[in-house]
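To whoever is covering the structure queue this week,

Two jobs came back overnight. Logging them here so there's a record in the thread.

Job A:
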Amino acid sequence: MTAQLIDGKVVANRMREQLGERIEALKKMGIIPGLATVLVGDDPASASYVRGKAKACEKLGLYSEVITRPATLTQDELLAIVDRLNNDLRISGFLVQSPLPRPLDEQAVVLAIKPEKDVDGFHPVNVGLMLIGRPGLLPCTPHGIIKLMEYYNLDPSGKEVVIVGRSNIVGKPMAALLMQKRKWADATVTVAHSRTGNLGVVTRRADILIAAIGHPRLITPEMIKDGAVVIDVGVNRVDDCASEKGYRLVGDVDFEGCSQKASYITPVPGGVGPMTIAMLMYNTVIAAENQSRK
C-alpha cells in the first residue's frame, strides 16, 4: 500500500480562492481586512513565518502591517503596541509572533489582545467559545487540519483519533474541536504525550493519527495500523550535509516508512504548514466581517 498524499498547498489555494469573494464583498462596503504581525527579536524561523504571512496578505489584497522590534523591548513597550493595534480601525486582527524573547510574558500579551482581533485564536475567550462549541476565532493549525479532512472527505465521526502532543497551540485545541457534537467532529479522542507509557500501543488504535509533539520521526511504521490516516504537524530541522543549507525539514512521522502503511498521509513540508497561513487569512477576513456588523 502507498498512501495518498494530503496536499496542503492544493487545499490552501482553494481556501484563498473562496476568501477572494468574501474580501471583494467587504471592499464594496469600503472595508479592507487588515492583519498586523508583531515580531520581537531576530529568531530566523519567526522572521520567515512573518514574511510568509505578509506575502499571503499581499496576494489576497489585504492590508498588512509588520512591526519589528529588538529583543530588548520591554513588556510595557510591547503592551503599548498591542493597545495601539487593538484600537486601530485599519487592523481587523493581529498577532504577536511566538516565541517571545525572555523575560517577556507571552501570556500577558495574549490576554491584552482584544478577543475579536485575536486571529491566532489563543485568547481565553476564544478558547472558551471553542470548548463549548460556540462561534469564535479558532486556532489556525487545528482548524486547518479540519479543513484538510473536509477536502479529502476523511470524516472523523465515530473514528478513534489519537493526538500525540498536548500543546496549547495544536494538541489541546485539536482534541476540543474533534470531540464536538457536529459535522467533521464526533470523534473518540485520545491525547498522548511525552509521558505516555507504551505509546505505540496507543497510536496503533488510531483510525486517524495526528502527530504534533516536535520530535523528528518519532512515529514509525510499527506504531500505526494498516490503513490509518496520518497527519504530521511536526516541523523539525535535521542535519543534512547534502543540502545547501546544511539541514532539511522533517516531520514527527517517518514519512517514507509510514507512507507504505497508511491510507492517507501529509508530507513535510507541504502538508499542514500551508493550511496554517491560509487559516490565518481566513480568521482575518472573519474578524473583518464580524467588526463590520457592529
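Job B:
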Amino acid sequence: MSQPAEIKIVLVGAGNVATHLGSALQEKGFSIIQVYSHTLTSAGILGNKLQTKFTHTIQDIDRDADLYLFSLKDSVLPEIIEQFFPVDGLLVHTSGTLSWNVFERRGAGRFGVLYPLQTFSKTRKVAFDTLPVFIEANNPKDEDRLETIALTLSNRVVRLSSDRRKQLHLAAVFACNFTNHLYAIAAEILEKQDLPWNVLLPLIQETAAKVKQLHPKEAQTGPAVRYDQDVMNSHLESLKGDPDKQELYRMISRSIQRFENNV
C-alpha cells in the first residue's frame, strides 16, 4: 500500500462525508472502485461523480478492495457491518463518536477509524491540506497505513483513542452545530424585522478571528458577561412569544456567567 494507485477503496455510504473524502482521495491518486448506498439514486450520484461502479445491494459490494471506508449514520453502521463478511481488507469508519470496537464485536479482523474534523456540505469544496484528521487502528501496521493515507490528504494527522475522539466530537458539536443553530435563530429574528441575515457577517467574522488569538473565555463579550440585567430583561421581553428561545437565552446567559466566575 505504498502508492495511492495500488490502494483500491470502496466507499460504503454516499452522503456528505463520503462525497468529500472520496473526491479528495481520488484527486490524490487513490482508486475508488465502487460506491455503496442503501438507495440506488444516492449511490449513482456519487458513483457517476467519481466515474466508478455503484450499487445499493450489500451482496454486490466488491470483496477485493484494500480499504472499505464506512461513512454512515452511527445507528446504521452495526447492521451493515454484520452483513459485510468475509472480506480481507481494512474496514474503517469516519464517525466521531463510535468506538473502533463496533467492528471487533462483529468479527472484523482488521479495522480502524479515519475521522476528519470538519463540517461537510456537498455543495462546498473543503480544503483538506490543513484539516485535522484523527486515526486509530487495531494493529500498528494498519495504523501506519492509515496514517500514510491520511497524510496524503492533510498535514495534520493525529493518532487518537476512541474515548478521546468522542470528547473531541462533543466539543465540535458545541463549536459548530450548536453555533450554526444560533445563527439560524439570529437569522429568523432579523428576517421578522425585514433585515438581511448578512448584516451579521462582519460581527461573526470578527468573533471567529478573535479566537485565533485569544482563548474563547477571554474573548467573551455581551450583556451576560457584563451582568447588564436591563439589557437582558429587554431581550427576554422581546422573546416573550417564544418560550423556547427565552429559556435558551437564559440558559446560555447563566452559562456565560458561571464560566466568568469559574463555577
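Note for Job B: Residues 165-260 form a domain with the N-(1-d-carboxylethyl)-l-norvaline Dehydrogenase; domain 2 fold (CATH 1.10.1040.20).

Please reply-all if you pick these up so we don't duplicate work.
Q.
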